[in-house]
Amino acid sequence: MNKILVLHGPNLNLLGQREVGVYGTLTLEQINDALEAFAGEHDILVETYQSNSEGDLVTKIQNAKGSWDALVINPAAYTHTSIAIRDALAAIDIPVVEVHLSNIYQREEFRHRSLTAPVAIGIISGFGVDSYLLGLRAAFNYLSR
Ligand code: DQA
User: Fold this and answer.
1) What average pLDDT does the chain have?
2) Which of 43, 50, 70, 85 qualifies as a FRET site for 59, CA 20 to 30 Å off?
3) What are phi and psi of 7, to 5 degrees?
4) pTM above threshold 0.70
5) Does the beta carbon of 51 lie inside 6 Å of ligand 1?
6) Ligand 1: which atom is nearest the Cα of residue 78?
7) Which of 8, 23, 78, 132 is catalytic?
8) Using a 6 Å cutoff on CB, does residue 124 contact ligand 1?
9) Any long-range contacts for 35-41 (C-beta under 8 Å, 24+ apart)?
10) Nearest residue to 34 via CA among 126, 139, 134, 133
11) Which of 35, 28, 30 is nearest to 13 (CA)?
12) Strand 70-74 to strand 96-100: parallel, antiparallel, or no bridges (unpaired)?
């Protein structure tokens, strides 16, 4: 069984109430339920974790080494700012898929640069909850190859 950790960055706990025109009406719990349902159908063990804190996310990423086969992460605003999260992702030697609900290239210029994308195997951006589901599938397919 493949073990895949899904990490959600800052402010994603507010999904469903936050800028619904951009991020949609689904809550984080509903997204996590959809991930669990997909995992159940594909013999994947999934754990989801959200934090508003950069340090928490760095520690969670560091601890993934040896415990998880792949990581799916929406670093949220830290995508554009966090060298610490990028370095943690680069350090763990497990495949990382970066996902975003919105299409970051369609938005403000400061969102066009991802510091974390270069250390991911790929990124999926712009498909709402499907970005997560496609990201989970991409990680699963990568591991199955
Ligand atoms: C986001 C895009 C980021 O620019 C933003 O800071 C977020 C969410 C997305 O999922 O579309 O918080 O990662």
Assistant:
1) 97
2) 43
3) -110, 135
4) yes
5) no
6) 6
7) 23
8) no
9) 35/6, 35/132, 35/133, 35/136, 38/133, 38/136, 38/137, 39/4, 39/136
10) 133
11) 28
12) parallel
